[in-house]
Amino acid sequence: MSIKLNYPIDIIFEELEFDDCLPSIKFRVDVNVNKFNYKFNYSGELLIDCSVLDSFIKNLNKGKSSILNDMNKKFFIRINKTSECIKLIWLVKRQDIQGFLMKSGYKCVITEDECSLIRKEFNNYSKWW
């Protein structure tokens, strides 16, 4: 099962495995950004607590600001809703044992229709917990 977002950037969450004890889901995530004559691709694995995913979806459904982050707080997608606009923010950061840091992200304003497509994709994800 996967979650695929196609706009404003391509993000695919491909489920790899489950942990019943926590419960949590391990995803492979692929992000492709083609903007401003530049191209950025990210691929990595992350672990998301099922309660965090539930909270993200619940807040999206209520029309509130929502954040989905991995358990290490190194990856997140945030939907910020204000009276003026809706912003999508994506950020990833990784650090190796020597302290070298890689950080990348994307932020843009999205419409209510685009937010609805994001909400629909997450709501269609089958839950086992």
Average pLDDT across residues? 95
Biggest sheet: strands, sense, closure? 4 strands, antiparallel
User: What is the succession of H and E elements?
Assistant: EEEEHEEEEH
- CATH level 1 class label: Mainly Beta
Describe this structure in words.
The model has no long low-confidence stretch (mean pLDDT 95). 19% of the residues lie in helices and 53% in strands. The protein has two helices and eight strands. A four-stranded antiparallel beta sheet has the order 1-2-3-4. Strands 5-6-7-8 form a four-stranded antiparallel beta sheet. It has 129 residues and is α+β, with helices and mostly antiparallel strands. Strand 3 and strand 4 form a beta hairpin. The protein has one domain: Transcriptional Co-activator pc4, Chain A (Roll), CATH 2.30.31. The protein is globular, with a radius of gyration of 15 Å.
List keywords for this structure.
globular, four-stranded antiparallel β-sheet, Transcriptional Co-activator pc4, Chain A, 2 helices, alpha+beta, single chain, 129 residues
